[in-house]
Design goal:
This protein is of the alpha/beta class. Helices cover 43% and strands 14% of the residues. The chain is built from twelve helices and eleven strands. Strands 8-7-2-1-10-11 form a six-stranded mixed β-sheet, with helices on both faces. The chain has a five-stranded mixed β-sheet with strand order 6-3-5-4-9. A hairpin with a 2-residue loop joins strand 4 and strand 5. Helix 2 crosses helix 6.
Length: 327
């Protein structure tokens, strides 16, 4: 069991973790969550003409229907995690570190004081609009195997790139539709499990460099606040206590090094990780990275299985216990 005095890490996930009705119980029963999400939805509507609240919570089909339109998923993922963060803070809870994963780095930058939520959301909307106007498309695929395999994959499928290394046996590739499909067939022939992610773009690939350059130009025009919570970048695999060089890393382009980022955190002792993403993906990655004798723990709040309120109460109680023990 984790020590009462261990640091707390809040984590924010990226593309592929979204689904319709994510956080629906919290939206229905937690006023801070609902009001925050609605405020951000109203802002998004000014730029897109669409309410992401209606898109996410007004969907009449299954929550497992494809939800992959980038113009909606970008801001929706930001809004649901930002609303979750604000809900926890309204209970007097604060993290010792914030960790962003891909798009989740925008949430981490915002909640840690570097970017206003309006500027972060605008940047994501701008990025999504560029992608929507282009003819580019692609896919991403998670592979349940050691990332050492990528050396062989790159030789066989040169258009595919490494997008993320998450655990000793979970990495993600990105590339054109045809190449990803051919790779998946080859993996099946070798009895290696893989899962195509619910996205329509090859994020973290060279094919989106044009959109990433534009995104960085927009972000360079924003005023940056002082970092008030140490920030863990999954792309840089490092912990930042201040940002003297601004926001120089390529959040949506560089390969994610979650395994290395976690090792950096664990080097200073056990942590209590709370996944604020909609699917609990990052908490799962944490557990897969840690050996059984490690005292760190990972908790989820939102999942696709409608247990959000119960999970939220349990995490809230645990956080109060951890934080109150310091006084």
């Amino acid at each position: 069991m984790v020590s009462s005095y261990c640091p707390v890490v809040w984590m924010y996930s990226g593309q592929g973790s979204q689904y319709f009705a994510m956080g629906q119980e919290l939206y229905a029963y937690e006023p801070v969550f609902r009001e925050t999400f609605q405020e951000l939805s109203n802002y998004v509507q000014r730029w897109t003409g669409e309410s992401i609240a209606n898109v996410v919570y007004g969907h009449s089909g299954s929550r497992f229907d494809p939800f992959d339109k980038t113009l909606f998923t970008h801001p929706a993922l930001f809004a649901v995690q930002y609303a979750m963060d604000r809900t926890l803070r309204s209970r007097g809870l604060r993290p010792d570190f914030v960790l962003g994963y891909s798009l989740g780095e925008f949430v981490a930058l915002s909640v840690s004081g570097v970017l206003s939520w309006k500027n972060a959301l605008y940047a994501l909307i701008h990025h999504a609009q560029i992608l929507e106007r282009s003819s580019s498309s692609g896919r991403m695929m998670a592979i349940l195997y050691s990332s050492d395999l990528f050396t062989e994959l790159a030789k066989r499928f040169p258009e595919v790139e490494l997008a993320a290394v998450n655990t000793p046996r979970h990495f993600v590739v990105t590339g054109p539709n045809r190449s990803i499909s051919q790779m998946q067939q080859w993996l099946e022939s070798k009895m290696i499990d893989s899962v195509v992610l619910p996205v329509t773009q090859a994020f973290h690939s060279k094919s989106l460099e044009f959109a990433d350059i534009s995104l960085r130009q927009v972000m360079s025009s924003f005023p940056l606040g002082r970092l008030h919570t140490p920030l863990v970048s999954s792309e840089r695999a490092d912990i930042f206590y201040e940002l003297n060089d601004g926001i120089s890393w390529r959040i949506t382009r560089g390969a994610i090094q979650f395994q290395r980022a976690l090792a950096k955190l664990e080097a200073s002792g056990p942590k209590f990780y709370v996944d604020l993403g909609p699917s609990g993906t990052l908490a799962s990655f944490v557990r897969q990275n840690l050996s059984p004798e490690v005292a760190s723990e990972a908790a989820v709040i939102m999942t696709p299985f409608a247990q959000d309120l119960r999970n939220f109460r349990a995490v809230e109680q645990k956080l109060h216990s951890v934080l109150s023990s310091r006084s």
